[in-house]
Specification:
With 179 residues, the protein is mainly α. Helix content is 45%, strand content 8%. The protein folds into 2 domains: 14-137, no CATH class; 140-168, no CATH class.
Length: 179
């Protein structure tokens, strides 16, 4: 019985980047800057981004615009993932989680690693993707970076640091919450 409960709890854990704004921003910025990913467009009206994407994919901008996060195989908008999100976004899309690059992603954007077959809309599929990504979910902060951030908890400044420090107080083991 206890094993079943533990398994259920593990299935409901939110990916770290959905709970840590600084980690999410770091992962998103890495996806924007990486030549092989090029997450964007940051401004949804940026036609130049779609032109570059179409050249990368050897197609037209009109066809490239059909390849958005909203229909990517790694875009998670399952009920369990929606519970991990801070809230809805503008009227021009919705927020989901990118299992390829580990950050909160906007449905109207895209990247060079887009793959057909999405979105992930069922909890069972979301859990499968989480299982596939187990080794990568804690990535993002080295022990040195974590220690530097912990040291700043004595006098946290800004929302992100205050949230990080609050989360540190509620963790018993690495990646495991007390409550």
């Amino acid at each position: 019985m206890l094993k079943v409960i533990i398994k259920k709890v593990k299935q409901l854990l939110c990916p770290p980047a959905t709970q840590d704004l600084e980690l999410n921003t770091k992962n998103r910025n890495a996806a924007i800057e990486a030549e092989h990913i090029q997450y964007g467009p940051l401004n949804l009206a940026d036609e130049e981004w779609w032109k570059r994407a179409s050249e990368h994919w050897n197609t037209t901008p009109e066809v490239a615009k059909e390849s958005k996060c909203s229909n990517c195989v790694a875009f998670d908008i399952s009920p369990r993932m929606k519970e991990c999100m801070p809230g809805s976004v503008q009227e021009d899309g919705e927020l989901g989680y990118c299992w390829m690059h580990h950050f909160k992603c906007h449905s109207a954007r895209s990247c060079y690693t887009w793959a057909a077959g999405g979105p992930i809309s069922e909890d069972e599929k979301s859990i499968e993707w989480q299982d596939k990504n187990k080794g990568q979910l804690q990535e993002g902060w080295s022990e040195k970076e974590r220690q530097t951030r912990k040291d700043k908890c004595a006098n946290p400044k800004g929302f992100t640091m205050k949230q990080f420090c609050k989360n540190q107080k509620t963790r018993s083991k690495k990646g495991e919450k007390k409550n």
